[in-house]
Amino acid sequence: MHIGHSTGGGEVARYVAKYGQPQGRVAKAVVVSAVPPIIVKSEKNPEGTPIDVFDGFRAALAANRAQFFVDVPSGPFYGFNREGVKSIPGTIQNWWRQG
Q1: Could you tell me which of 17, 71, 61, 6 has the C-alpha nearest to residue 39?
Q2: What does the pLDDT average to over 44-65?
Q3: Cis preceding-peptide flag for 22 (omega within 30 of 0)
Q4: If you ran DSSP here, which 8-state letter would residue 52 be given?
Q5: CA-angle at 46, arms to 34 and 33, nearest 5°
Q6: How far apart are alpha carbons 13 and 67 in whole angstroms?
């Protein structure tokens, strides 16, 4: 049994594709809110995320890791960057403490 969440879902999909049948090493698989194994936009994946987004994440992490972990939940992670969505400060400040 393999279970993957977020990027782990992509890893589960990769494992099942490689070792599922005919090897029979996978009985069950669960992916929860998974990202696809190939997330970067390309000719073969035109709906993907542009590499600039990931370059920006890497630069932000290198510049100020602590601020990055405030900025991401403040915007795209929880969707607070969408028009009409009200930010919830407790969620942003404490998201990493949950779990």
Answers
A1: 6
A2: 92
A3: yes
A4: H
A5: 10
A6: 32
pTM equals 0.52
Residue 48: Cβ within 10 Å count: 14
By percentage, how much of the chain surpasses pLDDT 70? 88
DSSP tag of 86: P
Alpha helix positions (H), 1-99:
7-19, 51-63, 65-74, 89-94
pLDDT at 98 over 70: no
Give the whole-angstrom CA distance, residue 75 versus residue 53: 13
Domain ranges of the chain: 2-32, 51-97
* Contact by Cβ (8 Å): 54, 64: no
> CA angle at residue 10 from 27 to 78, to 5 degrees?
125
